[in-house]
Amino acid sequence: MSQREWIEKDFYKDLGVSSSASQEEIKKAYRKLARDLHPDANPGDSKAEERFKTVSEAHAVLSDPAKRKEYDETRALFSGGGGYAGRGAGGFSPGGAGGFSQNFGNAQNFGDIFGGGATAGDGGLGDLLGGLFNARGGGTRAEGSRPRRGADVETETTLGFREATQGVTVPLRMTSPSPCTTCHGSGAKPGTSPRVCHVCNGNGVITRNQGAFGFSEPCDECRGTGSIIDDPCATCHGSGVQNRTRTITVRIPPGVSDGQRIRLAGQGEAGLRGAPSGDLFVSVHVSQDKVFGRNGDDLTLVLPVSYSELVLGTTVSVPTLTGRVGVKVPAGTVDGRILRVRGRGVPKRAGGAGDLLVTVKVAVAPKLDDEAVEALRRYAEAEKASGFDPRAGWAGA
């Protein structure tokens, strides 16, 4: 996306948040809007589909701290009297209160503001000012246009706890711009090919000199693409892109955690006229498990045991992700002790697995028969006679 588009769009307004919103507030706002506007929830509603794309585009920028910083700086630079929004290349005014001359000092260098997001031939400020400040004979030659890469796409999926820890393959059904199946993304009618623009010789930009300065601007003939299509594809009308619903099979690696984002290169929106596609980012939500908890790469669980098992010791069968194992509870184990079973936790990316942490928790019988009560009383007397005091040294005693 070029700086021109950044200036003309208000991504904060699209998500319904303020410009000072935290990353968590942006994330929550996007999730709510994405659920309400998703094409699957609004079949046949073109307005909801278009709004969904707008919201996804805004989130793709604001959820990335580096992109958000660049977006804020670019908009702040042109928010005053020297603003660029709504003007053509010839309407740029470097002066004026709050304009270019006042705000330029806030940027670390010129390339940070104009070189990060625009590509040659986009018609953005990087093209215009890159030529403006290259004095004749002393600057670099304007580069040829590069295809406009497709936008990144965000989606989300919810996994069960054990699916997330062990890894799973899930199908994701999504509607987004994809390469045209008729022309395979070229934009030209099958059997024909785009031809090189004779005005810019395929560069996508033309350069004109004025005094000591050289100006580079998008070619009007090919609109900055460097090629001309004489016979456009009837399906995509020459764009090389069509909106379609597709199913993508995504392999979720073992050990993925709640909130983690998985990047699938080239699975986002298709680029114009065969340009590279954007990326797909899948946000993973992991539901809770009735037995297991998680602490990093370690699994946790609470093991109910009786008082006699703690005192006398025992071996108890406990579940793991791959079956059951026997855990030895040593005699005299105190309530709340954590027993470690090595290698039975969450699989690690580098190989191996974390541990299983078993916390023993004494379970008290709600009711005993007369025989058990009498036996417990005899035990209490024997315990007292042995000199054991559970509160010795407790609270100043």
UniProtKB/TrEMBL annotation:
Its cofactor is Zn(2+). Residues 46-56 have a biased composition (Basic and acidic residues). Residues 35-59 are annotated as: Disordered. Keywords: Chaperone, Cytoplasm, DNA replication, Metal-binding, Repeat, Stress response, Zinc, Zinc-finger. Zn(2+) 2 binds at C197, C200, C219, C222. It is found in: Cytoplasm. Zn(2+) 1 binds at C180, C183, C233, C236. Binds 2 Zn(2+) ions per monomer. Pfam families: DnaJ, DnaJ_C, DnaJ_CXXCXGXG. Residues 167-245 form the CR-type domain. A zinc finger (CR-type) spans 167-245. Residues 10-75 form the J domain. InterPro entries: DnaJ, DnaJ_C, DnaJ_domain, DnaJ_domain_CS, HSP40/DnaJ_pept-bd, HSP_DnaJ_Cys-rich_dom, HSP_DnaJ_Cys-rich_dom_sf, J_dom_sf. CDD domains: DnaJ (cd06257), DnaJ_C (cd10747), DnaJ_zf (cd10719). CXXCXGXG motif repeats lie at residues 180-187, 197-204, 219-226, 233-240. Participates actively in the response to hyperosmotic and heat shock by preventing the aggregation of stress-denatured proteins and by disaggregating proteins, also in an autonomous, DnaK-independent fashion. Unfolded proteins bind initially to DnaJ; upon interaction with the DnaJ-bound protein, DnaK hydrolyzes its bound ATP, resulting in the formation of a stable complex. GrpE releases ADP from DnaK; ATP binding to DnaK triggers the release of the substrate protein, thus completing the reaction cycle. Belongs to the DnaJ family. NCBIfam families: DnaJ_bact (TIGR02349), PRK14279.1 (NF010872). Homodimer. The J domain is necessary and sufficient to stimulate DnaK ATPase activity. Zinc center 1 plays an important role in the autonomous, DnaK-independent chaperone activity of DnaJ. Zinc center 2 is essential for interaction with DnaK and for DnaJ activity. This is Chaperone protein DnaJ.
